[in-house]
Each structure stands twice: as structure tokens, then as C-alpha cells.
Amino acid sequence: MVEYLNNNSGFAAWNAAQNRGASRSRLGNFLWWTFLFLVAWWIVGLFMGPNTTTKNITEPDATVTVDVSNVPVYEIASDAISANVRGLRVSNIDLKNFAKSGDDKTPVRLIDGDGFIEIGLTPSGTTAPTATTKWQNTGDKMVWRNGDGVEFTREITVDGYLIRVSDTIKNNSKHGFAFAPYVRVLRGADKTDSAGVYTGAVAYVNNDVEHNAWRDLDKKSYAYTTTNGFVGFADQYWETIAQIDTPDQTMRMKKQGELYDTTTSAAPINVAAGQTHTITTNVFAGPRDTNVLGEIDTTINGISETMDYGWFWFLARPMLWSINMIHKFVMNYGLAIIIFTILIRILMWPLTRKSYTSMIAMQKMQPELQRVQKLYANDKGRMQMEMMRVYQSHKTSPMSGCLPMLIQIPIFFALYKALLISVQMRNANFLWIHDLATMDPYFILPILMGATMWLQQYLQQNKGDTKNQNEFAAQTAQVMKWMPILFTIMFAWMPSGLVLYWTVSNIFGIGQMLWLKHNTK
Question: Is pLDDT at 431 greater than 70 in this prediction?
Fold first, then answer.
């Protein structure tokens, strides 16, 4: 593609016919191109970025903070998580299979500090357990009876990352009562996550995922009504989701003090005298992993839709799947990305070959194109017509060289998103890099990427006569020489896995170009 901007063929020649006599400074052109590039990057970021709602419904009443220090604490656990249970509340959820960092092997903890998940009932005409209630533990069950003869039995089971809370209400009185189940998730914010990945409150409302980032909750509260759904919070790599298996729910999201609160309450359930009713609440606390969420989706419908693959989701999903499959064989994500990059370049070989072949043909067309430019310098319409005839006679097109670059754009953004949300890439080592999902701490990869980009650009340049280049083409060529530097700076803070992909792609492209030039002499 650079070839067409560096000489009198392709777009440069076309622009020569329409921009002869233009006088723009090189600095002005450079600033203009840089401005366009940044604007394009910002626009794509809008499509890539998470969607947030603009609903602003009346804020719910604040919940009074209560002292639960006198309520006994016991632990629940599975092979994947462990957590503390204190009456109605679940907190300090440790993810056993994920360490905080490569150096710190302490498990990742969700809902810690003053945060908690409270699962309870709002009674009508009687009383129900509260956050300060001391239950009677009978083996694997918790039991409490009120003064009206209503017995509440809570059983908590843990399977993988799923906590299931079953509340059985046995009405031994002579009167019917109503109980509205609710679940409340309260936690602090983690605003240090990477840009481009949705973090904040999440709700599943009428078969659609609603996102509200931390900054949105700082400004206002949100409320939704739905037949069924769930609420919770999402981080870059983790989710804490709660769902009541009961229809007709009202969901609320708000900031409360220094913490953030999501709550869902269902319609009251009538329990007649002598009857028994069981209410089930499901809590997911685990990684944002496609396979894990796919399994949980059978229990918490819609949770798999909380994965934020971005605008190019149709590319990001198979790309992430492919890298994970390659990793199973090579056991290193750096090597997996390198192999994946080579496979992508091989799949793109027909287009790449056509592009490079067209580029070589363009170089051979230079004398003929320059002749047309000189012959019809005063007749721009005729010049354009004759130039098109030259292209047709050589069976090439100015656009043919741009196809590989255009295809790389969605691949780039899809892979960027895939690497950011991939919990497997977190803390993945490769050579001097300790985390492929974060920037290269020594900036080695960005520099290599910029150097290979410059070399690839250099090999694409026409080494022939450039005396007759028009001013616009010459200035454009100068601007293009700055692109490796601009890309190096931009890539310096991007995930090192993405920079590794681009670097390997450049190196492989250089090899392809040298091979084609050698075989087309």
C-alpha cells in the first residue's frame, strides 16, 4: 500500500492529476495525517468500547448499615472457590485457581473488605431473618424460627464457581404470609483495569445485558424491571453475579458511600398456612471465561452474554478459541500467538501475493504512466481516462495493494479485544514478558515492531526514478516515513501479546515480499 503513496503510480499518480500545483508544507501534511489517524482511532474506540445505558430512574432508598460482628462465621468451599458465610451474607470469595500475580501466589479475592452478597427475604405481616440474625446450624443447614411459627431453613451448596442458596419457608401458623426475596451485591470499585474492557455494574434485563460503568454510577442511580434476570459486577477478568430463580423482579444500581450497590428484589410469594415454599438464589463468582460462563448459562440464563468481545466479536471469539487450542499443544501463550500469526498470514497469502504482484507491476508501469501525465497535463479528464486504460492493459488496480492492510484492521481490533478479556493470557509468561495482557515493561517489542514496519515500508518503496514525483506524492512519502515512529509510540502501551502478533506479522510479511521479488525478476 505504501508503494502507491510513494511514487507516481496508484493513488499518488491519481492525486498528481488533480493536485498539480498544490503547495503544502511537509509539517502541515504530517499534522493533518496525524490528526486523521487519531480521529479514526477515537471513532473505532467508540464502536469497540462498552455500551452504557442512559436510563435515569428514581434512586431507591438507602440501606442502613448494620453491625453483624456478633453473627457467627463459617466457611464454604469447592475445588474452585472458598467463601465466608455470616448469616444472610457471603463474602471474601477466594478464587483458588487464580493467583494475584506471578510473584504473589495469594488467590484472587472477590467481595472483600466491607463488601458482601446478602440474600434475604422482605416479609409482610410477620418477621424474617435479617443480617443480624443468629441462625441455628444443624449440620449443613441453617434454621431460624420466628414468633409466628414460621420456620426458615437455609441450605448452601457450592459447585465449582456456583454458590446455590435454597431458602425453605415452612408456615406452621394459622395465617398466610408473603415474602419478597431479594439479593444485594455490595463492593468497592476496581478502576485500574485496562481501557477498552467494560467494568462496573451489570444486569440482565428482558433478555438484554445492561452495562453501567463506575463513572456512570458516580453520577446517578439506575433501575430496571424485568420478568427474570440477574445483577452483579464485572471486572476485566472476573464477575460476581447473583440471580433469584423467581419472576417479576426490580433491579437497582447505585453508589452508596464509597461502595457500589446492585440489588434485585422479586415479587412477593404467598405462603399459606400449613404450606412450604422453597426459593433458590444462584451466585456466580469466577472468571470471565467463555467455557466457564457457557456452563453456568444453563443455570443463570444470559450470563454468557456478559463477555465483552467488542464490535468485531465475530472475529474475536474464533481468534481467542484458536489461540487457546494452539496453547494446549505448545503450552506457552507467546508461542501460541506466534503460530496463530503465521497461520493468519498463510490464510491471507492469496491476497498478499496479489498485492505484492500488483506493486511490482505498478513499478514497471512507471514510464508509461509518466508519459500519460506529461502528454495530457492540461486535460485532467483525458489523463484519468488514459491512466485507467494503462491499469486495465496491465490487469491491475490502485486498490489491489490496499486489501491486505484493510483486512488487517478488523483483525487488529478483534485480537486487541480478545487479549484484553482473556483470563488465560493474564500472568502468561513469554521470554522477558511476565504478562502478555499488559504492556512490555522494557519496550523491546514495540521497538522491534517499529523497526520491522520501517523495513517492510523500505522494501515496498520504488527505487527507480523519483524526479517527476508531484509535490503531494513527495510530501505523502515523507509523512509515511513517520508512521513507524507513530506506531511504535502508540503500541508501547498496548498488550504485549498484540505487539508480538504485529511484529511477527511484519517479519513474515518481509519474508513473503523478498520471496516474491526473487521469483518475479
Answer: yes
